[in-house]
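Help! Submission page says 'invalid entity' but I think these are all valid:
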Amino acid sequence: MMNKLRVEVCYTPSDYSYFKNDFEIVVVIDVLRATSAICAAFENGVKSIIPVPTIEEALEYKKKGYLVGAERKGQIVDGFDFGNSPFSFMKDECKDKEIVLTTTNGTMSIEVSKEAENVVIGSFLNLKSLCDWLLKSNKNILCLCSGWQDKFNLEDTICGGAIASILIESNKYTSNEDSTIAAICLYKNAKTSPFGFLKASSHRRRLKNLNLNKDIKFCLTPNQTSVIPILKNGKLVKL
Amino acid sequence: MMNKLRVEVCYTPSDYSYFKNDFEIVVVIDVLRATSAICAAFENGVKSIIPVPTIEEALEYKKKGYLVGAERKGQIVDGFDFGNSPFSFMKDECKDKEIVLTTTNGTMSIEVSKEAENVVIGSFLNLKSLCDWLLKSNKNILCLCSGWQDKFNLEDTICGGAIASILIESNKYTSNEDSTIAAICLYKNAKTSPFGFLKASSHRRRLKNLNLNKDIKFCLTPNQTSVIPILKNGKLVKL
């Protein structure tokens, strides 16, 4: 029997150190909302996105005239034009632009994984096209969830579970980790109604308080785009 | 409405730092097999258990004439009489004795949480009696899973999910964390057949290779004892 390739789900950026040497492709996932916004941005003609971990770096770019999105704890950071709502990246003024983005969790995952051979952006929005591409890659794949301030979160885990589930069903991939088994189980429980499944989740409660139900529904709707954002020389571009 | 108490599930000792200040009771869980063995030991008349994090400390106690269990990676450490199989603690020679124990994961969880107000030992073996006691405690409760070398594992998570589920159903407790929602969901999926649910889990594969299916079945059988081991001055004793 041919040796199968591995796909695993890692729950937080801080757990990445336990996984990092075994995978040629890292799929960064931050469903609510960074990686969904990034997919929406490329679908809508943004040229590239520069992810930066700190507010300070984001401010430097803003001074130079860049469009800059900055989010912390679900809200737009004072002094910036927008945060990480996908709808902010779908405006005409974003088309063909290079945009800078810093967020609470998602840009942190990109930062910790940036030395990997390939870093791509995953979300429900590009689920099918991403999995089609991953299946053709012939590489070992790590789904890196962004979590919430280094704690486990549900929405990234079920997205990672969806990707792992699709790859394993192809019979080309297998997994060794309990975190992956659990993510797939959670995805299968959530599948018919992710919005309902996430009802009690901490992040949904957090965003609901900020009146962001429209964003949440958008971010949980699969296969809205075929773009696969990939990190090249510190910038996210369309594959 | 009365403010509810909190119960949460933390997946690994290394995540404990994100949780530790909010909980008066820590329930340490290492289903396969340390905390199951500790419960079995007290059920069978062991007087006390001294958990130690390192092999070196365990050796010091052995030189002084103590009975010492030492396990690493599922196997008995060379030079020690037994590891962490529950059956090793159920022998006549253990009755009324003070026993020393070091294990890969479980004693590490006790080590990181030892400054908590109360540290008790949880497993499927004492599930019902432990939950009855927790429900009367009027304290906030953290279920601290031991994981496998600081990674998430399934068996501890479903045990934590069982405890959280029972406490929340009482209506006295609530949870804020996605890790707890997921643990409860996984427990509900595993409930009718934990042995089957864990079939693919990494630890079951690991122990199966060591011919330990009998241990696994024993550790997954709930409510075999009413003992609640509790940490007092560095020793585990019967509450």
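Support: the input was valid. A stray whitespace character was the problem, and the output above is from the cleaned input. DSSP finds nine helices and eleven strands in chain A.
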